[in-house]
Amino acid sequence: MIDVALSIPIWTLVTFLGAALLLYLTPGPDMLFTIASGMRGGPAPGIAAAAGISLGSFCHTLIAAAGLAVLLLAYPLAFDVIRYAGAAYLAWLAWTCWNDTGTPEDRAGRTETMRAFKRGFLTNILNPKVALFVLAFLPQFTDPALGPVWQQIIILGALLGICGFALYALLGAFSGFAAERMTHASRWMGKASAIVFGGLAVRIVLD
């Protein structure tokens, strides 16, 4: 796989990373989830949520490389089951955040950070549209002449995850620092996060 990675033209990588950056700068569920996690728990949970989302994205890359994402297109029922499971999970997060009266300081620590990581991962992995996006996007930058396409997909997917983590970690940390400094409005941060999570759940159902 190392030989395949080294054989990918620099211009292809530059084009791919440029397209990935533009996609990540477009507000979407993962970006909003990361910001909401930082608002609710502080910088560390915001960064952890970004890490969980990136891991979920890479898992979708492995699924696409294995060709399993095609099954989601072939079986609409499977797609809907996963989609509604993700929406239900986000709705549960919204309910939890709405009823949480703690401050970001109360939620600081390893436990909340790990919880944010797991939530970010589950939110991403339960979104079948990410799998379909990866399946449609990554192959555009592969070349069978360079080696096995599945290996190129994994390499590009890893780069996609790293790029996404770098950007979302900054957003999560920034929103977390902002929340910590707005102590007078801290009780509303959980409400704001609940609205974001609830809005994401509705968006998944309606899309």
Structure description:
With 207 residues, the chain is mainly alpha-helical. Helices cover 81% and strands 0% of the residues. Helix 3 packs antiparallel against helix 10. The longest helix has 33 residues. It is globular, with a radius of gyration of 18 Å. It starts with a helix and ends with a helix. The mean pLDDT is 79.
Write a brief structural summary:
The chain is mainly α and 207 residues long. The protein is 81% helix and 0% strand. It starts with a helix and ends with a helix.
Residue-averaged pLDDT, rounded?
A: 79
Secondary structure: helix percent: over 70%
Helices and strands, in order, run as HHHHHHHHHH
Structural class: mainly alpha
Beta fraction: under 5%
Query: C-alpha Rg, in Å?
Result: 18 Å
Q: What is the count of DSSP helices, taking H or I runs of 4+ residues?
A: 10
C-alpha geometry:
globular
* Distance between the first and last residues' Cα: 37 Å
**Could you list the spans in which at least 5 consecutive residues all have pLDDT below 50?**
none
**E-strand count:** 0
Largest sheet: none
